[in-house]
């Protein structure tokens, strides 16, 4: 990404769906399609047909929504990038296995400015849930990840990621299909040392990140089998590391 990067909206296309689809596949340059922000916060847990009903959104906000929502043929879909925060947030009610109802959760909320821009509604915050993210990847088939808000973790002495769901002491082999099961699960974490005292906000290459931050990112990649291509380290549009 450079200072010359520009994003342009697709112009209004008069006529019908046929005109729009023809424009997308024959005339338009590379087109970026994004789901609702709710899906980005809630991951696959909020999918209408594949999430934890009834705590779901009302539309198909997975990669399949690009086809069903735009009428775009699947063969024209190129790379699929998963945009995920370095921790997990959720808006409103519903299950949240890794939620932090303590000072760490409040710290993430404050430092990450986790409240709605329009409503001012606070988002619930918790540790990164790799079980949920792995399920999301299974549904969407990510080419690579964009890991955002890494700098929000800068002041923590230790950082956890959820790696296993258990029920009655037994590992669950799959992501739970029932919201009732989600209420009963126990979460198993892997704990990493933080990089407190080493700010990531000025870093612009992967190797310039603190050692423990690199270990954290590499673990995410290894667990999911998906590379992290971009890392967000601040609110400025140029506060981004491109890894490859």
Automatic annotation (TrEMBL):
Gene3D superfamilies, alphabetized: Adenylosuccinate Synthetase, subunit A, domain 1, Adenylosuccinate Synthetase, subunit A, domain 3
GO cellular component: cytoplasm
Domain of life: Eukaryota
GO terms of molecular function: adenylosuccinate synthase activity; GTP binding; magnesium ion binding
InterPro entries assigned: Adenylosuccinate_synth_dom1, Adenylosuccinate_synth_dom3, Adenylosuccinate_synthetase, P-loop_NTPase
Cofactor annotation remark: Binds 1 Mg(2+) ion per subunit.
EC number assigned by the record: 6.3.4.4
Reaction(s) the record says it catalyses: IMP + L-aspartate + GTP = N(6)-(1,2-dicarboxyethyl)-AMP + GDP + phosphate + 2 H(+)
Presence of the UniProt keyword Metal-binding in the record: yes
GO biological process: 'de novo' AMP biosynthetic process; IMP metabolic process
Alphabetical list of Pfam families matching this protein: Adenylsucc_synt
Residues holding GTP: 123, 149-151, 232-234
Annotated metabolic or biological route of this protein: Purine metabolism; AMP biosynthesis via de novo pathway; AMP from IMP: step 1/2
Keyword set includes Iron: no
Binding site for IMP: 57, 121
SUPFAM superfamilies: P-loop containing nucleoside triphosphate hydrolases
Similarity remark: Belongs to the adenylosuccinate synthetase family.
Primary role: Plays an important role in the de novo pathway and in the salvage pathway of purine nucleotide biosynthesis. Catalyzes the first commited step in the biosynthesis of AMP from IMP.
Assembly mode: Homodimer.
PANTHER family noted in UniProt: ADENYLOSUCCINATE SYNTHETASE
The protein's name: Adenylosuccinate synthetase
Organism name: Rotaria socialis
């Amino acid at each position: 990404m450079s200072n010359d990067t520009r994003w342009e909206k697709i112009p209004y296309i008069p006529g019908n769906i046929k005109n729009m689809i023809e424009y997308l596949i024959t005339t338009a340059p590379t087109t970026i399609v994004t789901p609702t922000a709710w899906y980005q916060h809630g991951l696959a847990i909020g999918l209408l047909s594949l999430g934890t009903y009834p705590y779901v959104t009302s539309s198909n906000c997975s990669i399949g929504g690009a086809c069903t929502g735009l009428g775009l043929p699947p063969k024209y879909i190129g790379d699929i990038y998963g945009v995920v925060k370095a921790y997990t947030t959720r808006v409103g009610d519903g299950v949240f296995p890794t939620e932090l109802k303590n000072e760490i959760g409040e710290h993430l909320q404050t430092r990450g400015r986790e409240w709605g821009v329009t409503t001012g509604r606070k988002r619930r915050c918790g540790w990164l849930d790799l079980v949920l993210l792995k399920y999301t990847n299974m549904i969407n088939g990510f080419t690579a990840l964009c890991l955002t808000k890494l700098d929000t973790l800068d002041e923590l002495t230790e950082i956890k990621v959820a790696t296993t769901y258990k029920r009655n002491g037994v590992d669950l082999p799959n992501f739970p299909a029932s919201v009732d099961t989600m209420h009963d699960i126990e979460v198993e974490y892997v704990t990493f040392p933080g990089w407190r005292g080493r700010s990531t906000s000025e870093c612009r290459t992967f190797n310039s990140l603190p050692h423990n931050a690199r270990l954290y990112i590499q673990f995410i990649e290894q667990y999911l089998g998906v590379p992290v291509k971009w890392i967000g380290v601040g609110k400025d549009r140029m506060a981004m590391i491109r890894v490859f």
